[in-house]
Specification:
heterodimer; A: alpha+beta; Ubiquitin-like (UB roll); DNA polymerase, domain 1; B: alpha+beta; Aldehyde Oxidoreductase, domain 4; seven-stranded mixed β-sheet; six-stranded mixed β-sheet; 19 helices; about 30% helix; flat; disordered N terminus; binds FE2/S2 (inorganic) cluster
């Protein structure tokens, strides 16, 4: 069995492959596990995650790179999966929201979002959390200003912004500069 | 289909409640235990006197909610309400656990499933806590009474000797003598239809209500485990992309689908006006859709975002008098200063981060549709009509909804998914792109308010002549004391006569009230300035409603307001409003960049009297959300269009609030636990237009009459100072 399907839910046993489509074998690491997919390298990562792999935590908000709902980590850096082609992740490490909690233990950023009630509808939240993780990776001790600047292009229609900022600040403290 | 065919925000459209046969099947399915049915109506009426402003007129007569205490001791509440971020998933179980004296963890909630939950009109109008809450509490109180009776029988002690705590009933004289709710429900088949109002707990007895609780869905939502409609997967499902017209009113002339059909695995379906491409991958379907060559007849563009206000004034329906008193002519004579103004509001989009989505599966004459909707029962009926099914053969299930704000009450996407699923015999998902979302949104209507008013030498208002066009009456009535006044509405809100708006319009968070409060509070500020009186002092001088006075004073105290006549170059603004029974006052501080016309809101203090507060943390979050979202309609949000063409297709031109815009927000919830709970999800947004406009005036002396107050409009207004 294709390694990718270790991750997908039970809803689909057979990998989907459009007949006669130009496919390519693309290997990458997804949530710490190696994956090899027969897939058209031009397809967007967002839809391959959501459809082929059943990882639906990564959301579509705008499809054009504006909102950040589709954020995943590629080699630890927040990246918008709606604009990313499968060929772009070849040999890379991809982490989605489903793969953030290590062994069922929530990441400090996830915990902080819960503790600060930093969400309403929650639709933007996977993207916000992953973007915050990436931000703290680059800058473990951000000022409030740096958090605001860093998060600015992740949209939230419900207006959870102030609590998201607070959550990131307290996650930074909790993480003491490390992951 | 037209958005205006859909449910209005009052209770006039109440249709048949739960059909009897379904109810029987349903009860069988529910199994044993204790089930309590409760109707909303009686309690609503009981509430009516206590409420400050008009409520829904017609009321449902049958039950609207029920709860079950299972043989395993778990308590389940079933409601047609949905969770879209506003928090009932936490606050409703909180209310229920309170009345039942059960641990919160033992309460489950099933929401928005039309086969499991009793009929509900929809989740909007800040009605969940106000109207549904008391009913649910009553069901809880009744359930506790039943449990006490059962316990009295088993334990052979009178009810008066029993007490309930944490899901256990015990004998006060011998606490070891006890039974859990699960033990009491075991083997029972009790169904109570609650008719009389049971005694609810007094505020002093509350253990859970009023306690800040964290959201119950947070873990689901931070781990990606929580499912929204677009996340539901069925074996063999197809994703549909639908051919859309380039403009509202455009007619399809021809469509060449050959190139799309040539793509392997793509299925093209034509069902009357609906042309769709389907594929197991949504992105492949999207690519195939682009290959369709279609020609449309596009009607000539007459209205656009510039001339729309003249068009609307020309198309305005006759006036409906909402309030009047005294003699306007007399009031005019008494005025030392008179001010006449016209306020404009553009169309505004809902722009929830989750676009409309639905997944439909039809098997054995039964349709199951997962949908992002604020009104699952409305969606059920629409789907049933479209595919020719009886409503009871359509089941709508509502997973988490990724934001609604009034925009998810018109369920076109669910109808499309059902029509396509019926055609292809496989489950079909429709998930709109952001561009489709902007095209099919039922926008907050563009609107106009004209006010003529005057003030005497003592800073008292002498007359108030108020006309609102197309925003409707919510928030239009006056709460200041003006002896001579008249308030009229042309058009009942977002439902407007055919030909008024170039596209669909609908309810947008606190419908109409944003427009009305912006106009009223801007005008009040102008009167204060004309009278040479500090704007807070001016309001207090013209208010007699103690509730509003208390709220305004609380905001001013907290802000540290010191009196000054505007423009005082401080950038401070104030505004008051009433929405969904809640009184709100906000004070903002802004900085205006005269060079580029940009406005930064630095601080907002917002005080609210919302009656009894169930979950203070949830209420604060809603206030913060309102303030943040409100910055958008105040500063940038407006739909650009030419004829039926919506020019905004994504967030590049339609700007919604971002982190860098967000001010320091301070919320104050006044203690008013002796009054029934009022709305919480909408009120704080209504003041945002005016509070920012008034602060800009205080900072610069420039008065803006049109929302949003874009940099260009700010610069233009500055040029006139
Ligand atoms: S969906 Fe990718 S940035 Fe919005
Ligand atoms: S929580 Fe709803 S969009 Fe952010």
């Amino acid at each position: 069995m294709n390694a990718a399907f270790l991750f997908c839910g039970s809803w689909r046993e057979q990998p989907l492959k459009p007949e006669n489509a130009m496919t390519d074998a693309i290997s990458f690491k997804l949530n710490d596990k190696p994956v090899r997919l027969e897939v058209d390298g031009d397809r967007p990562l967002l839809w391959v995650l959501r459809t082929d792999l059943g990882l639906t935590g990564t959301k579509l908000g705008c499809g054009e790179g504006y909102c950040g709902c589709c954020t995943v980590l590629v080699d630890k850096i927040a990246t918008r999966s709606c604009l990313l082609k499968m060929s772009d992740v070849r040999d890379k490490e991809v982490r989605t929201i489903e793969g953030l909690a290590a062994n069922g233990k929530l990441h400090p950023v996830q915990k902080a979002f819960i503790e600060h009630d930093a969400l309403q509808c929650g639709f933007c939240i996977p993207g916000q959390v992953l973007h915050a993780v990436s931000l703290l990776n680059k800058n473990p001790h951000p000022t409030r200003e740096e958090i605001i600047r860093g998060m600015n292009n992740n949209f939230c229609r419900c207006g959870a912004h102030t609590r998201i900022i607070d959550a990131i600040q307290s996650a930074a403290v909790e993480m003491k500069g490390g992951r | 289909m037209n958005a205006n065919d859909y449910l209005s925000l009052n209770f006039k459209d109440i249709r048949e409640l739960f059909p009897i046969d379904t109810r029987r099947d349903f009860l069988k399915r529910l199994g044993g235990g204790i089930i309590i049915f409760v109707a909303l109506g009686d309690f609503l009426e009981a509430q009516e006197e206590g409420r400050p402003r008009g409520g829904p007129p017609g009321l449902p007569s049958d039950f609207n909610a029920f709860l079950k205490i299972g043989e395993d001791g778990r308590i389940t509440c079933f409601t047609g309400k949905i969770e879209m971020g506003q928090g009932p998933i936490t606050s409703l179980p909180q209310m229920l656990a309170e009345e039942l004296d059960a641990p919160l963890d033992a309460v489950d909630i099933v929401m928005g499933d039309t086969d499991l939950c009793p009929w509900d009109m929809g989740t909007f109008g800040s009605m969940t806590t106000r109207f549904f809450g008391p009913a649910l509490r009553a069901a809880g109180a009744e359930a506790k009474r039943v449990l006490l009776e059962l316990a009295a029988e088993s334990l052979k002690v009178p009810v008066s000797q029993l007490a309930a705590k944490d899901g256990v009933i015990f004998d006060r004289q011998n606490p070891e003598h006890r039974l859990t709710y699960g033990q009491l429900a075991k083997g029972q088949k009790i169904q109570r239809h609650l008719t009389a109002k049971p005694a609810l707990k007094e505020v002093a007895e509350f253990k859970l209500i009023g306690k800040p609780l964290l959201r119950r869905d947070a873990h689901d939502k931070v781990t990606g485990a929580g499912h929204y409609t677009g996340d539901v997967r069925l074996p063999g499902m197809l994703y549909a992309k639908i051919l859309r017209p380039p403009a509202h009113g455009a007619k399809l002339k021809s469509a060449d689908t050959a190139a799309a059909r040539a793509i392997p695995g793509v299925q093209v379906v034509q069902d009357d006006d609906l042309i769709a491409v389907l594929h197991p991958f949504p992105d492949v379907a999207e690519g195939a859709l682009e290959k369709i060559k279609a020609e449309f007849d596009i009607p000539e563009a007459t209205v656009d975002d510039k001339n729309i206000f003249d068009h609307l004034l020309g198309a305005a329906p006759p006036a409906n008098v909402l309030a009047q008193g005294g003699d306007l002519e007399q009031g005019r004579k008494l005025a030392a200063k008179k001010i006449e103004s016209t306020y404009l509001n553009s169309y505004v989009a809902h722009a929830a981060m989750e676009t409309h989505a639905a997944l439909a599966s039809i098997e054995g004459g039964k349709a199951t549709v997962w949908a992002s909707t604020q009104n699952p029962f409305g969606a059920r009926d629409e789907i049933a009509r479209a595919i020719g099914f009886e409503p009871q053969n359509v089941r709508v299930i509502t997973p988490y909804v990724g934001g609604g704000f009034g925009g998810k009450t018109f369920n076109l996407q669910a109808v499309e998914a059902a029509r396509l699923a019926k055609r292809v015999g496989k489950p079909v998902q429709v998930m709109w792109s952001r561009e489709e979302e902007f095209f099919f949104d039922t926008f907050r209507p563009a609107a106009i308010v004209k006010i003529s008013s005057g003030v005497d030498g003592a800073g008292k208002m002498t007359f108030w002549d108020y006309k609102v066009f197309f925003a409707g009456d919510r928030g239009a009535p006056q709460f200041y004391t003006v002896p001579n006044h008249r308030t009229v509405a042309h058009g009942g809100g977002w439902r407007a006569p055919e030909g008024s708006h170039p596209f669909g319009t609908g309810a947008w968070r606190a419908p109409g009230n944003n427009t009305n409060t912006h106009a009223r509070e801007s005008q009040i500020d102008m009167l204060a300035a004309a009278a040479g009186v500090d704007p807070v002092e001016f309001r207090l001088r013209n208010l007699s409603d103690p509730k509003m006075i208390r709220v305004l004073k609380a905001a001013a105290d907290h802000f540290g307001w010191t009196p000054a006549k505007a423009p005082a170059k401080r950038g401070y603004g104030v505004a008051c409003g009433i929405d969904a029974g809640t009184y709100v006052a906000a004070i903002a501080e802004v900085a205006v960049n005269a060079g580029d016309g940009s406005v930064q809101v630095k601080r907002v203090v917002c005080a609210q009297d919302m009656g009894m507060v169930i979950n203070p943390e949830g209420a604060r979050i809603q206030m913060e959300g309102c303030i943040t979202m409100g910055l958008g309609y105040a500063l940038t949000e407006e739909v650009h269009f030419k004829g039926g063409k919506v020019l905004d297709t994504n967030f590049d031109t339609y700007e919604i609030p971002q982190f860098s815009w967000v001010p320091k927000i301070e919320t104050i919830i006044l203690d008013a636990n002796d009054n029934p709970p009022q709305g919480g999800g909408e009120p704080a947004i209504v003041v945002m237009g005016a509070v920012v406009a008034n602060a800009i005036f205080d900072a610069t002396g420039a008065r803006l009459f049109q929302l949003p107050m874009t940099p260009d409009r700010v610069k233009e207004a500055l040029g006139k100072v």
